Automatic annotation (TrEMBL):
Coiled-coil ranges (or none): none
Listed SUPFAM superfamilies: Periplasmic binding protein-like II, Winged helix' DNA-binding domain
Taxonomic placement: Bacteria, Pseudomonadati, Pseudomonadota, Alphaproteobacteria, Acetobacterales
Organism: Pseudoroseomonas cervicalis ATCC 49957
Family per similarity comment: Belongs to the LysR transcriptional regulatory family.
Superkingdom of the organism of origin: Bacteria
Transmembrane segments: none
Protein name: Transcriptional regulator, LysR family
Domain HTH lysR-type residue range list: 10-67
Pfam families reported for this sequence: HTH_1, LysR_substrate
Molecular function via GO: DNA binding; DNA-binding transcription factor activity
Length: 293
C-alpha cells in the first residue's frame, strides 16, 4: 500500500475515477460517465484498492457497494474535487462539448410536462448529452436514486430518505375529467362524484393515494372501475363513458379545450402537491449534474 499522505507519485486521475464509481455504483456506468473503457475503469479500481489498502467497492448483486472506508472518503473526495475544479476554472465542464448519458426517472405525466421544454434546450446547448428515461413507482424511483442507477428522479415524493435532496419545480393541483354527455348535462358535485365509477392511474402507489385519503377523511370512498399504469392514454379513454378521472390538472390541458369534456375542480378539498427533482447528495460535486438541474 502507498502512503496516501504523499501526493508525489500518485496519479490524481484515480480520484476522479473513484468519485465516479462512488456516484454510479457500477463500472460500466462510471466508464460511460468518464468516457473511458470498462477495462480501464476496472484497472483504475484495482490501483485504487492497492493505494488505499481497502476494497473500496464490493460487488453485491448487480451493483457495487462502498466499503466503510469508501463511505468515509466520499464527502471529502467530492469536496476536494469540487475545489480543484474551481481552481482550474469553468473550463472543467462545457455543455457544448460534454459527452454523457443522464438517466432520469419519471412517469409519462412527468415526461409530458418536463421534456417538451428540456429537450429543445438540451439539443441546442448540449448536443452530446443523451437522456435515458425510465418509469417506475415512487418507491422504485427512490431506490434507483439511492443505488446510483438513476441520476435524477422527477415526480411527487412526500417521503424521502436522508441522503436524497430535492428541489421543487412547481406546485400541482388535482382536477376531475368527465364526458359531458355521460353527465346528462349535470355538474359534478360530491354526490355525483361518489355515485359514478372512477378511473385510477397508478403503478404501485401514486397520487390516487392522496385522493382516497381526502375522501376517507370525509367518511367516503369511491369505486375504482378501471386502473391504468400510464397517464398518457387515460384522459382520452373517458370519452363516451360514465367514468370520472381525477388527476394532475396539467395532464388535462388538451381536454380543457375540448367541449365534449368537463374539466373541473374536485368537489372536495385535496391538498396541493409539489412536483420535485430528486438526486443523491453524492452528485453535488458533479458540475454536469449541477448544470442539468
Amino acid at each position: 500500500m502507498h502512503d496516501v499522505n504523499t501526493l508525489r507519485g500518485i496519479d490524481l486521475n484515480l480520484l476522479v475515477v473513484l468519485d465516479a464509481l462512488l456516484a454510479e455504483r457500477h463500472v460500466s456506468r462510471a466508464a460511460a460517465r468518464l468516457a473511458m473503457s470498462q477495462p480501464a475503469v476496472s484497472h483504475a479500481l484495482a490501483r485504487l484498492r492497492h493505494l488505499f489498502g481497502d476494497p473500496l467497492l464490493v460487488r453485491r448483486g448487480r451493483q457495487l457497494v462502498p466499503s466503510a472506508r469508501a463511505q468515509d472518503l466520499a464527502p471529502a473526495l467530492a469536496s476536494a474535487l469540487r475545489q480543484l475544479r474551481a481552481v482550474l476554472g469553468p473550463g472543467g465542464f462545457d455543455p457544448a462539448t460534454e459527452r454523457r448519458t443522464f438517466r432520469l426517472a419519471m412517469s409519462d405525466y412527468g415526461a409530458a410536462v418536463i421534456l417538451p421544454d428540456l429537450l429543445p434546450r438540451l439539443r441546442r446547448e448540449a448536443p452530446g448529452i443523451d437522456l435515458a428515461i425510465t418509469q417506475s413507482s415512487r418507491e422504485g424511483m427512490l431506490r434507483q436514486v439511492l443505488e446510483g442507477a438513476c441520476d435524477l428522479a422527477l415526480g411527487v415524493f412526500p417521503d424521502r430518505p436522508g441522503p436524497l435532496q430535492a428541489e421543487g419545480l412547481f406546485v400541482e393541483r388535482f382536477a376531475c375529467l368527465a364526458d359531458r354527455a355521460g353527465l346528462g348535462g349535470g355538474g359534478l358535485d360530491l354526490a355525483a362524484y361518489l355515485a359514478r365509477p372512477h378511473m385510477l392511474v397508478a403503478l404501485q402507489d401514486g397520487p390516487g393515494a392522496e385522493i382516497d385519503a381526502a375522501l376517507r377523511a370525509l367518511g367516503h370512498a369511491r369505486r375504482i372501475a378501471v386502473t391504468l399504469p400510464h397517464w398518457g392514454h387515460a384522459p382520452g379513454l373517458i370519452r363516451g363513458t360514465d367514468l370520472v378521472l381525477t388527476v394532475a390538472r396539467r395532464a388535462l390541458a388538451r381536454q380543457e379545450a375540448d367541449p365534449a369534456f368537463l374539466v373541473c375542480a374536485p368537489p372536495f378539498a385535496i391538498p396541493l402537491f409539489p412536483f420535485v427533482q430528486l438526486w443523491h447528495e453524492r452528485r453535488n460535486g458533479d458540475p454536469a449534474h449541477l448544470w442539468l438541474r
